[in-house]
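Contributing: when you submit paired examples, paste them exactly as shown. First protein:
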Amino acid sequence: MTTVAARPIRAGNRTARGLGRRAGVTAAAALVLALAVLASLALGSRPLAPGAVWHALVAPDGGDASTIVRELRIPRTALGLVVGLALAVAGVLFQALTRNPLAEPRILGVSAGASFGVVLAIAVFGVGSLTGYVWFGIAGALLAGLVVFVVANRTREGASPVTLALVGAALDASLGAVVYALLSIDARTFEEYRFWVVGGLTGRDVGVAAQVLPFVLAGLALAALVARGLDALALGDDVARGLGHRIGLVRLGGGAAGVLLTGAAVAAAGPIAFVGLAVPHLARALVGADHRWTLAVAALLGPALLLGADVVGRLVAPPGEVPAGVVTALVGAPLLAFLVRRAKVVTA
């Protein structure tokens, strides 16, 4: 009798410890993000003390510190929060939907769709401002995602992980060829596109973050709705059906969420590398494969990584800057290699 009674108690203790550990990791990730935000507001070609940053936020006096914080650093920090969150969560979704640990926001051709929309805006419609062609980037990303799902659904296997990846790769290559063809015949388009395609937070005002925020919020809401279904998909389609999940709706909802998040992020900041690839693996290494926790931790670590990369880019070559997209590639590659070496890369 004693042994039988002890088993559920021990199981309950293990569950409580697991929840406590995951909650602790999430709190630590939130602290890391808060420190990254502070660093983004305080550090640059002119470093500011935390007290000066706080004063500029709550009681601006029109001085140099207030101008730097409110007009230069708050907009790029806000954009870094939105874009980093969107890319990281989209990476979790795409890795789960395709069951591919190397999947990232480019996998469904969404980034290429955003690039095509931006180039079309510049070359055909003569749009010359970032706030103008953000809308074209989002529209191109949404259209690319729609094409991928429609074409995949018409195949014999339907929107299976392999089919989605193959159709997305084909669309990525096709749109990439069109983009480079347009760039090769129009020098002005190339000059405009060159600024955007490197990927970064420089030169964007707070209006850009406000433009893409509704799409990011919609993507996050869809991601939260399909999180349990993604856990079931990881067990296989038959098991997911047996557990009562409608796998078609789960894939459609997860794909729509990923497309919204990727389209918004890429349109606003350009195709920033490795955030959507490395952060999901780091999140799973910390909290396991439960997508509710993985999505939450990735949503905190993604913007922390992007803001940290942006700060490093400001500090390494003052008074100039290295774009955040370059820094994330340099940091993300060894981070991913470290996770692989430690056997922490966990498939969804």
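Second protein:
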Amino acid sequence: MTCSIFSDYSIGNLNLDNRIVMAPMTRGFADNQTGEVNYLIADYYGKRARYGAGLIITEGIAINELAKGTYGIPGIYTHSQTLSWQKVTREVHKYNTKIFAQLWHVGRLSHQEVLGGHAPVSPSALAASGFVHRLRQPFQTPKSLSKQEIYNIIDDYKIAARNAMEAGFDGIEIHAAHGYLIDQFISEKTNLRQDEFGGSLKKRLRFLDLIIKQVKKVVPKNRISIRISEKKDDDKDYTWEQPEEIVLAIIEVLSKHKIKIVHPSVENYGYALKNDKRSLHELFRQYWDQTIIAVGNIDPDEGSSIIKKKQADLVAFGQLFISNPDLVIRLKAKQELFPYNTKNQLTYLN
């Protein structure tokens, strides 16, 4: 049977009405002091559910007080934050849409002015290049995490995941991409440690490995997505020297824990990796027979083709979901889509 982007999809007992995913996008409209979300945010996600999104993955949600990298980032590490997310999940579930909380720690990509006077943290004391989002100050040299601090953060991921399920989320996504904290451990450029969390690729993946081990104690394995990327937000020229080796090592970790969803993140879907003839999605598809989420500036017609050709199982749209809350309806009716406009559409929630 030929599958369509509008056909239903199941991952164990997680049933999606269609294969269209709202991609995670930082919006920054939470209360900056408390990290709580409000009814405006509930309406924002609820509107995409009302118009038919199969799965919504939230913006990155801070897993502890040092996890955020800019202003207005929501959290899910306090009781009040957890309660505030309930209004979002209730609104989304009115329309049978599923919603995952994306758990986020930016590591060194932050600043003490964002973190209440605390220094950012990272596997090694190496400053990122560039400027802090919205603050527009250079990234500071982070504090190198002690082993005890690393294990504390691993526990924080578990607590945040448990809070997400208590808030009514259907699952979680662990953000291990884009040069944020987990990715800082994975990368040979940002992880210079000589202990069990640094050195070989296997050791650099240990942080992610232990996070998954803890998170799956409170979230079913079929409801955990892992976001992976080659690209780093603070290092535009970074490339994997051996892409296949890294993808296989990541898959080994995911398979060990029986994880069912991977979300390879790229700027443009289908573009070949610099050091491989295949794209990141092609590499995962070659070696991974579980659920893959395609993303990366995908045209809707291309999204339909991706599903029909079984290149991926779900297709995520980002900016088009901002400019078209009713994106799914418009795609079904083959109606014109409103273009995304950064200047007008990033300044408010609609």
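If you have annotations for the second protein, write them as plain sentences, like these:
The mean pLDDT is 97.
The longest strand covers residues 55-62.
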